Amino acid sequence: MPSSVIPSDQIRAAVERELNAIPFIDIHTHLFMPSLGSIGLWGIDELITYHYLEAELFRSHDIQPAAYFELSKRAKADLIWQTLFVENAPLSEATRGVVAVLNAFGLPTSGDLKDAREFFAGRELRSHIKDVFRMAGISEVVMTNDPLDPDEAPLWEAGAEGDSQFHAVLRLDRILNKWEQNWQTLEQKGFAVAADGSGKTMSEVRRFLEEWSARMDPVYMAVSLPDTFAYPEDSLRVRFLRECVLPVCRERGIPLSVMIGVRYLVNPELRLAGDGAGKADLRALERLCVDFPENRFLTSLLSRENQHELCVYARKFANLMPFGCWWFLNNPSVVEEMTRERLEMLGTSFIPQHSDARVLEQVIYKWRNTRRTLTPILANSYQLMSEDGRPVTQEDIRHDITRMFRGNFETFTRRKF
Ligand code: FIX
Ligand code: ZN
After folding, report:
1. Total structural domains in the chain?
2. What pLDDT digit, counting tens, does each position of 99-111 carry?
3. Bridge-based pairing state of the strands 276-277 and 256-263
4. Is the torsion defined by CA of 24, 25, 30, 32 positive or negative?
5. d(CA 327, ligand 2 centre) in Å
6. Which atom in ligand 1 lies closest to the alpha carbon of residue 358?
7. 322 with 342: CB under 8 angstroms?
């Protein structure tokens, strides 16, 4: 038996070892490189006021959202801490995550926030980022960069310094989903566009995308789409996709990330925490893959009910790459179901997870949880392969984990990270 063949009773330990040894690429986050300044969130008060925890607060405290949002950041964090971590046990995925981060830095996980606030106040951001990425087992992250965000765009236009651990993405929501509110910003920037898409609008939006692609060098373009997203459709959104976005993606050889299934602001009072989820009609995705065979579609869906059919579509279209267990799906009970059906139908030709981190230190718990959840699932797959007659080697496990958490993204983006 070759020395690298792993005895059945040691497969799980071998999987755990490789998951911990291989640095992952975090392919979708809301983190920002240090040169983008204060739009990058980090530290204990940002961790505790994460919008996931704000939604949970309103279920366990009678404060009304309007009154909550009047509070200072510190007062918001104190209220959430007292309600979700002191008066109630932090059992939810998001509350337990904050506990895991505190614990990872050797900070108290109960009592008050004094020690934690002093610790984070003493951290220097650039060295802190390197520590956090090492603790999370990631080599780099992919950002979400909005060229029409009034806080972010000027920083890029002023020549924000790049960072090899942060890769840019051109985010398109304000063009594809909120054109009425944003077309005049393009007009003020010197692009001859119109509210109804007439005249030179299409060529000018394409020019805008080309200019920002040259500025940001995005590894992909991205858009969040509602559960009602339809294609084909007689709409400005589809015209922008067909005439602007997909041609520029083809020119630059980069994928388009479509994240489908959001029901925006089902409760507007909760602001960023107010979005819900809805099952999408994936015939839209099917038609995109058929009509644009030269384009590649990184795809994440928000409804659990869409996940199995996404695997079926991924078997039909090699230009479709399922990724992550997005947002309300990033919980062990659902991650297990999604990852098992993906392995069963796609082998290792998918990207199991991204963090969607909005606060720097979240990557520590989100990737710890991913490794903890995936260890038994991957071990089970190798166990079955071994029982069916194909011995498992350390090289198999190393190759497959590297493919899922690095290689598939490198191949799809045509980049080496
Ligand atoms: O559209 C997105 O990128 C979503 O991930 C976010 O809008 C969402 O608020 C989030 O952070 C989910 O984890
Ligand atoms: Zn996101």
Report:
1. 1
2. 999 999 999 999 9
3. antiparallel
4. positive
5. 8
6. 11
7. yes
